[in-house]
Amino acid sequence: MVEPATATQTAAPVMPQLKDELDIVIPTIRNLDFLEMWRPFFQPYHLIIVQDGDPSKTIKVPPGFDYELYNRNDINKILGPKASCISFKDSACRCFGYMVSKKKYIFTIDDDCFVAKDPSGKAVNALEQHIKNILSPSTPFFFNTLYDPFRDGADFVRGYPFSLREGVPTAVSHGLWLNIPDYDAPTQLVKPLERNNRFVDAVLTIPKGTLFPMCGMNLAFDRDLIGPAMYFGLMGDGQPIGRYDDMWAGWCIKVICDHLGLGVKTGLPYIYHSKASNPFVNLRKEYKGIFWQEEIIPFFQQVVLPKDCTTVQKCYIELAKQVKEKLSKVDPYFDKLADAMVTWIKAWDELNPPTAGSSVPNGKAA
Amino acid sequence: MRTPSCLLPLTLDSAVLNLSNITDLSPLPDHILIELFLRTLRAGKLTERVLKLFIATGKDEVFSLIQELNIQVTVNPVLPTRTLNSDLTSFMNAWRPIFSRFHLIIVKDLDLKEEIKIPEGFNLDVYEKPDIDRLVGTSTSIIFSGYACRYFGYLVSRKKYIISVDDDCLPAKDNKGFLVDAVSQHITNLTTPATPFFFNTLYDPFTEGADFVRGYPFSLRSGVTCVLSCGLWHNLADYDAPTQALKPEERNSRYVDAVLTVPARTLMPISGINIAFNRDVVGPALLPCLRLAAEGKFRWETMEDIWSGMCVKVICDHLRLGVKTGLPYVWRNDRGDAIASLRKEWEGVKMMEEVVPFFQSLRLPQEATTAEDCVVEVANAVKEKLGSKDPVFARTAKAMLDWVKLWKSVGGCSSSPGA
User: What are the site positions for Required for activity (chain A) (predicted)?
Assistant: First the structure.
C-alpha cells in the first residue's frame, strides 16, 4: 500500500538547481491546495498557472509562491485569433503556459499529484530528479541494460560501443505515478481497484525509433530544444476527443527528437497520483481516440522528416502538413488539428522571437 | 483456542516444503505416500523430478492416481554451465533449492584438466571432451572451449526452454531480502508475451499489478512470443575492463523491480551471464561463433555472447519475436582483475565500433522464416560486409554456417518458424 509523503519540510535541497531557468506550469480548474505539500520543493521556482474553465472564478494560490496566472480571457487577449489553437475546458490548455514562459526548462504537474515516498520512506523531490535527468545525456542509439548509465552506481555495460557513450542532449524527462496509474477508461472500468505500488528505481532512454504514450501529469522538458513541438492539440469543449492531448504531443516530440538526435527519458521520478477520474466520463472523451490511435500510430511510425528540417518549428510544420495529407481521411478533425498545429507555431514564434544574433537551429537532422 | 495440529499433517507439510532434499520415497507406507502426493499436487510442486520419485516407488495407487488426474508434465528448463574451476559444490549447493527441480546439463570446458566435482541430489547429464568429440566430430570449426562450451549444452538439450547462468553467480536477494528464484522469473518472462512495437511506460504490462497505460494501441496489446529473457547482476555488474578498472570499488546494489521488452529494431549488449531462451524457436540463433584472437577466461576478455546477442536480436526483430530484459538478478562473485584484463590485447572494444553499425543496418529477406534461415542470411552478410575488415569476421561467418549444419544434424528437429 503506497502513501504520499507528508513531512516534506526536511527534504528540501539547500541550493535549488536552475531556480531562475525553470518554470512550473500547472493547469487547474479547482484549487491549488496541493501546492502546500510541494512547497519545500517548489517555492524557489516561478509558477505559471493556466486556469481552465470559467474565467470569472478566482483560483486561490497559497501565499508565498511567485506566480503568473492566465485565464481564458488572458489567453484570448494575448493570442487574439490564434487563441483558437488553445483548448478550452481541458487540461491541454497548459501548453499556453509553455508558450508564454521565458525560461529554458519547464516542469508541468497536475493538481491532483502529490509528493511520493521512495521505498525507504523518504519524500521524493520530483523536480530535482527531473533536473538530473534533463541535465545528463540520453542514449537513444543503443540500449544500456543497466538503464541510465549516468546515474550514480551505474555505467555502460560490456559491449556498449565507446563512440556512443557521450550520449545526446536530453530534451524530455517523463516521470511516473504511484497509486492511481494512468490507465485508459476501458482498463479503469475493468480494474477499478488496481493501484501502482511498484517503485521501479530506474531512469532509461526511450530508444530511437520507438514511440511511447507520453503522460503530461509529471513531465519536464527543455523549451529551447523541443518547446515548439509540445503542443497539446485541440481537446475538450467543441472537440470530438479528449484525454489525448499529451499523447499527441508525445508522438510528435518523439518523432522530432529522433530526427534531431535528441533524447527522451522515462522512469523516475514518481509522484503520488491521488485522484481517479470518472471512468465513464473518460470513456466518452477517449472513445474516438481508441479507434483513431490505430491509424495514428502507424502514421507516426512511418513519418519521415526531410533532411532540411533542421529546427523544431520546421519539423513541426512538416509534420502538420503530413497530418493533413494522411490523417484527414480518418476524420475531418485532423484537418482542423493540422491547421491548429500551424497556428500554434505562428503564435510560438510571435511570443518567442529569436533574439538578435542567436542561431536558430537546435540540433542536426538525423 | 486453536485445535493443536497432529504430528502427521505437520510432517507431510514439512515434506512438501523440503521436496528438493528428498531423493527416495519408497520407505513411505502407502497411505502416507498418497497423502503426500495429493499435498504436493495441491501445493503446485509436482515437477518432473518429483513425479519420477513417486513413480519410482512402483506403487499401484500412485499410478492410478496419475492416470485418474490426467497429470501432464510441463516443460522444464535445462541448465548448461561451463566449469570455471572444477569444484562445483558450493555453486550447486547455493542454487539447490532452485535448480534441484530441473534437469541440468553440465558441460566441461575443453581446457579444464581436473575432474569436476558435483554434489549429490541433482538430475543431470555431464558432457566432457570425449562426449563432445563423439557427437560433434572434428570437421567443424566450432570450438566448445571457454565460455562457448555451454552452446554444446544448448545443442544436445531436447527441452523447450534453456536457462544459462555463469558458475561464478549465486542467487541474489530482492529488495525485500528474499532469495530470487531466477529460474521461475525467466520462465515467467518467456511464457508471457513481449511488446516490442510500442513502449509501455509501466514496463511489463503482464506483471501482477501493472497493465498497458493510456494511449497504448489496443491492437498491439496481445503482444508477441517472448523468446529471450536477459537477466541482470548484483555485485559485479557486467562492465567491460576499462569501466571496471576506472571504478574498481563500484558494485551494483540497485534492485530495479522491472521487466521490460526491448523495442523492435533497438539493439543492446546481451550478456551471456544470466539468460534464458526458447530453444524450439530461436535455438540456432544463439551461437558460439565469434572468438577473439586473445580470448580469455574472464568475461572482460570475451565478446562471444555480445556477438550472439546481436544476431539473436536482429533475428527476433525480423521474425517478430520478443526479447525481455530486467529481472531476474543473480549475484555475481568478485573475480579477476580488470586492469590485468586491460593489458591483454583487447580487440573486443574496437570491434564493437564496426559491429554495431553493421547490425543496425542489417535487413533480412522475407523468405527467411526460421532461425536457421536467418542465421545463414546473417552469416552471408557478415562475410560480405565485414569479412574484409578483419579476418575474425570471415572466420565467424564460416563458424555460423558450421553451427547451422551442426544444429541440423545434432540439434534434433529444426526450429519452428517464428510466430
Answer: 158, 165
